[in-house]
Amino acid sequence: MSRSESAGDIAVTVRNLRRAYGPRVVIEGLDLTIRTGEFVALLGESGCGKTTLLRALAGLDPVDGGHIEGPAQPAVVFQEHRLLPWAPLWRNVALGNETAEGRRRAEKALREVGLQGREDDWPRNLSGGQAQRVALARALVRQPKLLLLDEPFAALDALTRIKMHLLIRELVARHRPGVLLVTHDVDEAIAIADRILVMRAGAIASTHLTADTPPATLRGRLLKELGVENDSRAA
Question: What count of other Cβ atoms lies within 10 Å of the Cβ of residue 132?
Answer without folding.
Answer: 27
